[in-house]
Predict the 3D structure of the following.
Amino acid sequence: MSAALELYGAQTGNCLRVAVTLEELGLPYQIRKLDLGGGEHRRAEFLALNPDGRVPVLVDQSAPDDPLVIAQSNAILLHLCDRRPGVLLPVDDVRSRAIVLERFFYFVTDVIAANFSAFYLNRIGASTEAAGQLSARSIDAIVDAERFLAESRYMAGDTFSLADVVAVTIVNASRDKIAFSDHPLLSRWFDESRNRPAVLRGMQAFAG
């Protein structure tokens, strides 16, 4: 019997965050790997799921007669957390939930959005100076997040959360630009987080 959850994607940051979340939540899923270089995301079959032709896309067939298709990565992450309440996103403690969401959106907006914008400008051959400034802003935000770790073991408390999922994937992608020796709390957190079994599995979901 196939898994109710199908994840369409490739080896991109947004797709890896979803795969890591699925692994951390212990939800069975199937990978539907797309060859972006070969244009599979522009084929009619995939465009029927997401007319924008972007990955990731999650197809939740928990209700076989009415499958749910979600095409925005952050919406996918929150939907998956609802499938396993309390594991990566608190449900009973309003304060703890708010802190996880605050740190989650910190990494999504202050770090990842700036990083993506820099990548996009480089890809289209636009302003190198602007791309460099955006990339530096993203790294500065990662380094500034060390203050969260002065309060707790993980980014949003003493348990691994959705905030850590988005943080570990973008920090891993940016690791060559970070002077970890100058930031011992960030270094300790990164080493511990990236070596979690579920994180390791998720990061390899689209490999090969």
